[in-house]
Design brief:
about 0% strand; 5 helices; mainly alpha
Length: about 140
């Protein structure tokens, strides 16, 4: 969907072993950011809302990009995300807020660790995804 599909497109077979802890973390954070973006899209359109959606999308994409670089592929990624979304829905609001805060801190560190080219790719893809979502939102309101 909005956040996950952008960077994880290869169709490699899923690994039979337990997923790496980072892959689980990436799925957990992507699920959290996906929920945040969905929630924000329900809010009235403002510049601050749109900037928050872009930041959430960039944060999600850095996790996705690093996980992809480490070998995570679509089939396993989709499965991990679905599981993470189920866990997210069961978390109390305070735990959700804490998860978002820790994911945001980790995303900042990941962004600092990647190369300029990788950072640019993440930011560019996130911006394109968000612009696409805003166009979709605009068309829905016009109907």
């Amino acid at each position: 969907m909005l956040l996950w599909a952008g960077a994880v497109m290869a169709q490699a077979p899923a690994a039979t072993a337990d997923p790496s802890p980072f892959f689980v973390e990436a799925a957990e954070c992507s699920a959290a950011y996906k929920a945040e973006v969905t929630s924000r899209l329900a809010q009235p359109k403002t510049e601050s809302r749109d900037q928050a959606i872009l930041a959430d999308t960039e944060n999600s994409f850095i996790f996705i990009g690093v996980a992809y670089k480490q070998g995570l592929r679509k089939a396993e990624a989709d499965e991990l995300l679905a599981q993470a979304e189920q866990r997210w829905a069961k978390l109390p609001k305070a735990a959700q807020a804490q998860r978002i805060a820790s994911c945001t801190e980790r995303a900042g560190k990941l962004m600092d660790e990647v190369s300029f080219v990788e950072r640019y790719a993440v930011q560019n893809r996130a911006k394109a995804r968000v612009e696409q979502q805003f166009e979709k939102e605009k068309k829905q309101k016009a109907q």
